[in-house]
């Protein structure tokens, strides 16, 4: 299984859609400093109030997470993971795989973990490039804090990838599955930061995995293990449960 | 009526019978639910969050804030349900090795692509019209939220976005006939959709970028649909009417390109 996972990961990295997604991420990294060169006063004031932090770095992190990486978390996982198993079925490959000593459930796990690994590679690559590109171009940029905050968000993106795969096999058709996953992830992303805008709803929004991924915004000045580890563990658990659920649901897919 | 157009209309009727309907019907409900959600939840936000949207997007009152969020609730489901259907026109058929079989029918390739694309685009337009109508009704019911946007103006804005979604999807068919992987097509389409949204993000975070470019500002950012709501009352329906024949032309162009290419 490990060998299959490795080969599938390599194949995923070589796919054209992965390269297009990588190009989009590079574009985002290069453009964001221009977008944030001179935010208007009402933007600075509002973000300072929501996150109790007047540091320009907080404005940057809000935009990076909300405008860029949360949108990435909506679209790229769906593109990478919505075809898992269903593509093989629709192209007639699944019947061949059925003759191999590998159950459909395990195959789903391998393909989903591989999609998660491709997503993580793209994500980590983008954050490392950003950490090199942003100093001097983004006011008050702190690479250590940035990477710590984004390491938490990476767990949310991994969840989104597993979620897209599971939703697709649950729906049973690639197009419809991608659409449902896109809508549900879009809803989660849309509501991810609502708890910061309306503090009365903060605790309620913690059921949203994408909110957990953005919890570093709560205290950027003092990011540490106590802030980052609990949501990371919660997201890792949710991802594992989602993949396990998908591996059960996939059994209903007709070969 | 020529024989060719008769054949096309017959083929179109045949494709219409088989076009998936469940997705568009569900997405109509999603569009209506988005509007209901906005009108119930957004007024509960603190004044600072509402002022952020009001000032950032140059809206006059709460009606503007609600209408702008409603417009997103129209554009997102409309575009993406249409995109899902559009992937099935050529891309999925090619990947599943059915395209050659389908093209073996006694129908020209341009007619084939147009006949498969048009029902999808018609259902896309229906989703946009229903969501836009829900937005107009919600604004009419909540008249106390402000007078900067009338229900008819909001409806016009929603219809213009629907027209944009339909034309964009028809234009994407031209790219789809040369792409082999449906998810690459999906990614390209997401990029195109983001491209239409980028000017609105720039308005929020870099409004100075539009200084000295009023034509760009008033034509590319989504809130401009609300700034010119009186014009949108007639321009919205007109643009949707024009979008449909333009989509036919684009879909046929995609088919003609497929015919000339060896991308089967």
Automatic annotation (TrEMBL), chain A:
Top-level taxon of origin: Bacteria
Transmembrane region(s): 20-37, 57-86, 107-134, 146-171, 178-197, 228-250
Keywords: Membrane, Transmembrane, Transmembrane helix
Annotated protein name in UniProt: Uncharacterized protein
Species classification: Bacteria, Pseudomonadati, Myxococcota, Polyangia, Nannocystales
UniProtKB/TrEMBL annotation, chain B:
Keywords: Membrane, Transmembrane, Transmembrane helix
Ranges that cross the membrane: 23-45, 74-93, 113-140, 152-176, 183-205, 234-258
Protein name: Uncharacterized protein
């Amino acid at each position: 299984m490990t060998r299959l996972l490795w080969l599938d990961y390599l194949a995923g990295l070589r796919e054209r859609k992965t390269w297009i997604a990588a190009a989009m991420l590079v574009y985002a990294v290069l453009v964001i400093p221009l977008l944030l060169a001179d935010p208007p006063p009402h933007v600075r004031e509002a973000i300072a109030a929501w996150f109790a932090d007047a540091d320009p770095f907080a404005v940057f992190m809000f935009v990076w997470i909300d405008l860029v990486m949360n949108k990435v978390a909506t679209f790229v996982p769906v593109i990478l993971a919505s075809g898992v198993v269903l593509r093989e079925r629709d192209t007639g490959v699944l019947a061949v795989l059925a003759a191999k000593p590998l159950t459909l459930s395990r195959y789903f796990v391998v393909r989903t973990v591989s999609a998660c690994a491709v997503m993580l590679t793209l994500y980590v690559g983008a954050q490392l490039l950003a950490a090199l590109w942003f100093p001097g171009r983004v006011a008050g940029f702190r690479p250590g804090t940035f990477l710590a905050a984004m390491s938490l968000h990476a767990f949310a993106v991994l969840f989104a990838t597993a979620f897209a795969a599971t939703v697709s096999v649950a729906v049973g058709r690639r197009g419809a599955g991608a659409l449902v996953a896109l809508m549900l992830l879009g809803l989660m992303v849309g509501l991810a930061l609502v708890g910061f805008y309306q503090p009365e709803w903060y605790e309620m929004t913690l059921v949203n995995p994408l909110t957990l991924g953005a919890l570093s915004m709560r205290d950027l000045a003092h990011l540490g293990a106590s802030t980052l580890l609990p949501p990371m563990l919660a997201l890792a658990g949710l991802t594992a449960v989602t993949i396990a659920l998908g591996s059960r649901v996939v059994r209903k897919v007709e070969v | 009526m020529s024989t060719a157009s008769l054949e096309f209309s017959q083929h179109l009727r045949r494709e219409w019978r088989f076009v998936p309907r469940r997705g568009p019907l569900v997405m109509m409900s999603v569009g209506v639910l988005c509007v209901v959600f906005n009108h119930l939840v957004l007024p509960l936000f603190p004044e600072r969050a509402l002022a952020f949207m009001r000032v950032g997007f140059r809206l006059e009152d709460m009606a503007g804030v609600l209408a702008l969020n409603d417009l997103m609730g129209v554009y997102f489901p409309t575009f993406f349900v249409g995109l899902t259907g559009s992937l099935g026109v050529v891309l999925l058929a090619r990947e599943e090795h059915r395209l050659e079989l389908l093209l073996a029918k006694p129908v020209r390739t341009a007619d084939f692509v147009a006949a498969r694309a048009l029902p999808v685009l018609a259902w896309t337009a229906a989703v946009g019209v229903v969501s836009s109508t829900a937005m107009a009704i919600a604004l009419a019911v909540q008249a106390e939220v402000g007078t900067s946007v009338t229900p008819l103006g909001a409806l016009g804005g929603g219809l213009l976005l629907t027209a944009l979604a339909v034309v964009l999807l028809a234009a994407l068919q031209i790219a789809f006939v040369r792409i082999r992987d449906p998810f690459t097509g999906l990614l390209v389409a997401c990029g195109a959709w983001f491209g239409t949204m980028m000017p609105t993000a720039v308005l929020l975070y870099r409004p100075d970028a539009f200084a000295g470019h009023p034509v760009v500002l008033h034509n590319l950012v989504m809130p401009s649909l609300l700034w010119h709501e009186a014009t949108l009352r007639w321009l919205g329906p007109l643009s949707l009417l024009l979008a449909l024949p333009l989509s036919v032309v684009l879909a046929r162009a995609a088919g003609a390109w497929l015919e000339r290419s060896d991308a089967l």
